[in-house]
Write a structure and sequence with these properties.
Length: 187
């Protein structure tokens, strides 16, 4: 068995460890494994001069990737800087997709702050791996406000409307009070 050392961002490393182990074995995910092999098969050197200047400054972590003997001899044993960045971006996209979906799910029952903290806690993205502010910024940028759903907020609004209708039907709440409530609701 052979290993390849892949430089990655800290939260990408945590995502890879969660899904593929440490050392990482991509064989359980055909898409990721094929993409990784493609990086080995046809190394792209197109952007190497650009990436070599940055020296992977954001890639402060590295993770070992398992290479089977067949992959080692058939495809190769190293990645060009261009392929490291390309594969890193693919894994970063996967990690952010997980983050956005889980936080959206958690936000159906809690506020954004608690949803982010729950995500960090349940998936092991500590503050030094993936900071709260970074997650919040990415989530806010990526998820359309109209797509955000809060079960408790929506449930509360529906329940309030039912109560207002009931109170109005029995004469306990008159139209001026309902208008006042609706005006305050929109503030």
């Amino acid at each position: 068995m052979f290993f390849l050392e892949l430089p990655v961002k800290p939260y990408v490393k945590q995502y890879i460890v969660l899904n593929y182990g440490n050392p990482a074995n991509f064989s359980s995910n055909k898409f990721i494994n094929d993409r990784f092999r493609k990086c080995l098969t046809k190394p792209s050197r197109r952007n190497n001069p650009v990436y070599e200047k940055t020296a992977f400054c954001k890639y402060s972590e590295s993770i070992k990737i398992i290479l089977t003997q067949d992959d080692f001899y058939r495809y190769g044993w190293e990645l060009s800087p261009t392929d490291i960045i390309s594969f890193g971006k693919l894994m970063e996209h996967q990690a952010k997709f997980l983050m956005r979906n889980m936080i959206s799910f958690y936000m159906t029952l809690m506020n954004e702050r608690d949803a982010i903290l729950t995500f960090q806690n349940k998936f092991g993205f500590t503050e030094d791996i993936w900071p709260f502010d970074s997650i919040k910024k990415n989530y806010s940028r990526s998820v359309n406000k109209s797509a955000k759903f809060s079960y408790t907020k929506d449930f509360s609004v529906k329940l309030e409307n039912l109560l207002l209708i009931s109170l109005s039907d029995v004469g306990n709440l008159l139209p001026p009070a309902i208008i006042h409530y609706e005006n305050n609701q929109n503030k």
